[in-house]
Amino acid sequence: xxxxxxxxxxxxxxxxxxxxxxxxxxxxxxxxxxxxxxxxxxxxxxxxxxxxxxxxxxxxxxxxxxxxxxxxxxxxxxxxxxxxxxxxxxxxxxxxxxxxxxxxxxxxxxxxxxxxxxxxxx
Length: 122
Prior knowledge:
- By secondary structure, the protein is mainly β.
- The chain has a domain at about 35-80.
- It has one helix and six strands.
- The strands form three sheets. The protein has a two-stranded antiparallel sheet with strand order 1-2.
- β3 and β4 form a beta hairpin.
- The longest helix is centred in the N-terminal third of the chain and has 4 residues, at about 35-40.
- It starts with a strand and ends in a 45-residue tail after the last strand.
- The mean pLDDT is about 85.
């Protein structure tokens, strides 16, 4: 959750952690949902002809890290793909409250709309 201060700045109200990958690269992650099951997942071997898909909200996505029996999607067969994501349609700064649609527009990051995932304009 992000809150706006009187001076127009923002502050993250969730715990932030620094993760380091085995190759030494590090980055910050926001832990917005207390879901330890999604925090540490063992390495996976993806079968030939399948894909590992990760949701856009790592703490709260039932993606390929979880089997269908656990409510996730498991590994996805390549033949199930029907399209490719090419641009960002909507992006907010975290201050929006989803049950309050009128907050979506003040939180809009308009400079990201219609940009590709590589940062280029589409």
